[in-house]
Structures are given as structure tokens and as C-alpha cells.
Design goal:
Helix content is 40%, strand content 27%. The protein is of the alpha/beta class and 151 residues long. It has one domain: Response regulator (Rossmann fold). The strands form three sheets. Strands 2-1-3-6-9 form a five-stranded parallel β-sheet, with helices on both faces. A two-stranded antiparallel sheet has the order 4-5. It starts with a strand and ends with a helix.
């Protein structure tokens, strides 16, 4: 039986880096990918996941042909967390962000404190927060630690 994972990431390069690790460490895996708040919420409404890997800075919608890309919202990932909370869902979540702060309830919170604040403010199953830094192995190792708990 395969593990069902939702990757919510609008940066194609970062998504590919995450996908490679997930496919290697969780094989067999069924991946669903979302590139915006809208597509992530649609995916969540279609079913539960064994793990959700969530970026925090996301556009509200996908780019429309001929219009260009939608502006990224620094707190787009919070909208996804709020939807999961509203639905009473407990899908395990790992936040992967390249920023050292997360905007929570209009306040910038250091990553080191963000997991506790999200857990106390929202009824979601947040497993942890990973600082993504291209070319650094630390984020990969941290993600792999969370993936071990999914198996």
C-alpha cells in the first residue's frame, strides 16, 4: 500500500527537490501536487493524506493563460492550515519554508517558535517546521526525519 502525500509548493525547483526525497524515502508513494492556496484546498477536499508538505508563501490561484502569475502571499500557507482546522482534519503536516519567520495572525514569528504557536492557535497536526535552503543538506536531513515517522 502506498503512502499518500500532498506537496504544496509553487516553486518548481524546490518542489522537484522535495519530490525526489519523498519518492526515494517513502516508496511506494502516491503524490499529489498543488501550486497555490486554491489547488491545495481543492486537493484537501478530495481526500485525506498521510502527510502534507506545506510551503507558507503561496499564490492564491494558479496563473491564468495570458495573464501571468498570481502574486505570492507570504501567509498563503496559513490559509491552508486554517482550512484544515475548519474541517477538523488531522493529516500530519510539515512546513517547508525558505523564510526565517512565518506570519501568524498578522505577527511575524521566528521559525523556532512558529510550530508551538501554530499548534496552540489551530487544531492541526503540525509535526514540525523545516527551513529550506537550496544547496544545504540540513533541510533534507530534517525532512527525512519526519518522513521516517510516516512509514
Amino acid at each position: 500500500m502506498s503512502v499518500k502525500v500532498l506537496i504544496v509548493e509553487d516553486d518548481a525547483f524546490k518542489a522537484e527537490s522535495i519530490r525526489l526525497i519523498v519518492e526515494h524515502d517513502l516508496a511506494p508513494v502516491f503524490l499529489v501536487e498543488a501550486t497555490s492556496v486554491h489547488s491545495a484546498i481543492n486537493a484537501i477536499h478530495e481526500g485525506e493524506f498521510d502527510l502534507i508538505l506545506l510551503d507558507m508563501s503561496l499564490p492564491s490561484h494558479e496563473a491564468a493563460p495570458g495573464v501571468g502569475t498570481a502574486a505570492s502571499m507570504p501567509s498563503g500557507g496559513m490559509s491552508v492550515l486554517m482550512e484544515l482546522d475548519y474541517l477538523g482534519r488531522t493529516d500530519p503536516i510539515v512546513i517547508l519554508t525558505q523564510y526565517r519567520e512565518i506570519e501568524i495572525d498578522s505577527e511575524l514569528v521566528q521559525l523556532s517558535r512558529s510550530a508551538d504557536q501554530i499548534k496552540s492557535s489551530y487544531g492541526v497536526s503540525l509535526k514540525g517546521v523545516v527551513l529550506y535552503k537550496h544547496g544545504d543538506r540540513l533541510w533534507k536531513n530534517k525532512l527525512r526525519e519526519y518522513l521516517r515517522d510516516v512509514k
